[in-house]
Amino acid sequence: MRRTRQGGTDLEQTIIEETLSRIESKIERLIEHAGSSYPDHAGPDGIYKFRQADWWTSGFFPGMLWILYDLTGRERFKAAAWGRDADIAGWFGRPTVELNHDVGFQFLPTAVIKHTLTGDGEALRHGLTAANFLASRFHPAGGFIRAWNLGPDGQPRPGWAIVDCLMNLPLLFWASGVSGDPRYKQMAVIHADTILKHGLREDGSVSHICSFDPESGHFIETLGGQGAAPDSAWSRGTAWALYGYALVYRATGESRYLHAAKRAAHYFLAALPEDGVPYWDFRLVRREGEPRDTSAAVIAASGLLELAESVPDPERRLYEDASKRLLRVLTGAWTTWNDDSHQALLTGATGNRPLGHHVDFSLIFGDYFYLEAFAKLAGWKHRIF
Ligand code: GLY
Question: How far, in Å, from the CA of 298 to the mean position of ligand 1?
């Protein structure tokens, strides 16, 4: 590592640098395996399988490459990340039902960070194209950004909004910043308020899906989605809310979003089992035999560091310590350092338990947020989300 925080004195500094070196080695090997493909998930064999660039996770591997480039200055990471924004943007001109509200997850870690780090004009254009696409999904009567194109049954669901979409809002905030057009930011704030009203519960847990009448925009009900039930508490959704509202607070300075992020954080931390690794849902009737979700833990860990940046001491310390506790537990028991042939960083992530997709797997977004959290602890100053 070339550029790490100078003068860190606490015990963790060695662990942070060691972990980043291990991540760097694993990702160098993954570059060879991936070529120009998009790693998505790895099962027990530890070999990453690929998805097309239109799939919502396509930004995470490039995002890891850009973070490593920014931390180390090594051209190898930049070269492997360079063409990804054009690759994903190519799908705007092709038939696909996959491009949806998640273009933030795809273009913030590719076009936007590339433009930030290199000033590349084509990356700026791709980022703005993606922001326009995201803005085109805004539902004016309901005040939300439409989720997905089809529901799990293959039917269109124009009245659905989801909590995860909070993480895509930084694309709209960025677009307002670079274009000087406040409408992107206005849409982001309206979506954040709608989810605040209907998706984030008083206790800080979340509903995954909020369903609205697509004609009138009136709220109908909440749905379980990737959680166990409409009134359960999908752990990754809670982590998305924690991190997402911390980001909306950073962009707006409005205290209601800081309070929302804190509520989600406090629920997440209070609901953790004794060993500190979340089950895929915090309100399971029976936990026996149910999988964990390490991706929820790392999203929360990185989000807690964002929250820590937003508050003064001694509160800052509280959130930073909670983040480090999560990272320590994961690094101790859920990493693959003892297996060179395992291409992922973390095991024990759960993609979609109700549909039985990628249960107890390695997922590229889990690996991304693990690296992102350690990069923040090492003093990485740029931000992707
Ligand atoms: N699409 C976001 C998630 O599965 O968490």
Answer: 13
- Domain extents for the chain? 13-377
- pLDDT per position as a tens digit, 74-123: 999 999 999 999 999 999 999 999 999 999 999 999 999 999 999 999 99
Mean pLDDT for 116-145 is: 98
The radius of gyration of the chain's CA atoms, rounded to the nearest angstrom, is 19
Give the C-alpha separation, 259 to 195, whole Å.
Answer: 14
How does pLDDT run across 331-374, given as a tens digit for each residue?
999 999 999 999 999 999 999 999 999 999 999 999 999 999 99
Best residue among 55, 164, 234, 299 to mutate for probing ligand 1, ranked by most atoms within 8 Å of CB: 164
Interatomic CA distance for residues 249 and 252, integer angstroms: 5
Cα 109 versus chain centre, distance = 10
- Please, are residues 127 and 104 in contact by the beta-carbon 8 Å criterion? no
C-beta 56 within 6 A of ligand 1: yes
Query: 280 phi and psi, to 5 degrees?
Result: -65, -25
- DSSP assignment of 145-164 equals EPP-SB-TTS-B-TTEEEGG
CATH code, 13-377? 1.50.10.10
Q: How confident is the model at residue 10 (pLDDT cuts 50, 70, 90)?
A: low
**Is the entire prediction scored with pTM above 0.85?**
yes
